[in-house]
Amino acid sequence: MATIRLGDKAPNFTADSSLGSINLYDYLGESWGILFSHPADFTPVCTTELGTAAKFKNEFDKRNVKMLALSVDGAASHAEWIKDINEVQNTEVNFPIIADEDRKVSDLYDMIHPNADSTLTVRSVFIIAPDKTVKLTLTYPASTGRNFHELLRVIDSLQLTAYHKVATPANWEDGQDVVVSPSISTADAKEIFTKGVEEIKPYLRMTPDPTK
Ligand code: BEZ
Question: Fewer CB within 10 Å, N side or C side of the chain?
Answer without folding.
Answer: C
